[in-house]
Amino acid sequence: MNKRVSGIVGVILSVIILMYFENFSIEVLKLLGLNIYNLNSTLQLIINIIIRLLMCFMIYVIYKKDFKSKCLSNNILKSLLVFVVSLISLVIGMYLFDYVVNFIGDIFDITVLDRDFYNIFNKTLNMDLIVRIMNDYLIKPFLYVTTILLGIEKLTKRNDTFIMFSGLLASIVYAVSLEGTLGYVIINSLSMFMLFCILAFIFKKQNSVWFIILLYSFYLISSVLIINNLGW
Question: Is residue 59 a contact partner of residue 52, using CB atoms and an 8 Å limit?
């Protein structure tokens, strides 16, 4: 199997895992007599974490060679400086782009969903919160970054194509969860498209998947602070 075919197979498998494995696992548990929705919230979160960790493992196996070849730089100080600059640029860039999306939504009279992040900073520290943090700020960035960026990278070596298709795949994955008119789905997927175009651009500059996973994670945390606490 040549690299292009194996790359296509890897992308298809990882996208299927990302989009459908969690629901599939829950349905299998129901068939085995365990309906997680009848359990308390903590047990539900723990089972979801276990399922998502299994998803992480499967996607890691698919892209194992890429993880080994795309590690963090040994120059810690330089990497930290680039990370901070990248994070600030990402936060500001997405904040400005959200204004553009809202402006387009107003023109076409389409409702734009608010970016509603779970505020971890005003919650009591307990098992529920710890599991939620693991799920939203560690596991989710890992799943999305590896599936989308490492997957698309296997299909093209051109930077512009890689950036464009990374954004496109991310927006499609997100769009599947939306219900509404075609215009509504497109408008509300634009932010995810732009987010992963920016992440793909930085990925090509840094050549480190772990750098982008951490960047996406800190971007989500920064968004919580900005939107829920600073009122942006």
Answer: no
The size of the chain, in residues, is 232
pTM exceeding 0.85: yes
Each residue's pLDDT tens digit, 7-38: 788 899 999 999 999 999 999 999 999 999 89
Q: Are 88 and 181 in contact (CB under 8 A)?
A: no
Q: Do 188 and 178 form a contact (C-beta atoms < 8 A)? A: yes
pLDDT tens profile 54-110: 999 999 999 988 776 556 566 778 888 999 999 999 999 999 999 999 999 999 999
Integer Cα distance of 139 and 49 in angstroms: 8
Residue entry with tokens 């963090």:
72
Convert the chain into a string of H (helix), E (strand) and C (coil).
CCHHHHHHHHHHHHHHHHHHHHHHHHHHHHHCCCCHHHCCHHHHHHHHHHHHHHHHHHHHHHCHHHHHHCCCCCCHHHHHHHHHHHHHHHHHHHHHHHHHHHHHHHHCCCCCCCCCCCCHHHCCCCHHHHHHHHHHHHHHHHHHHHHHHHHHHCCCCCHHHHHHHHHHHHHHHHHCCCCCCHHHHHHHHHHHHHHHHHHHHHHHHHCCHHHHHHHHHHHHHHHHHHHHHCCC
Contact 148, 169 (CB under 8 A): yes
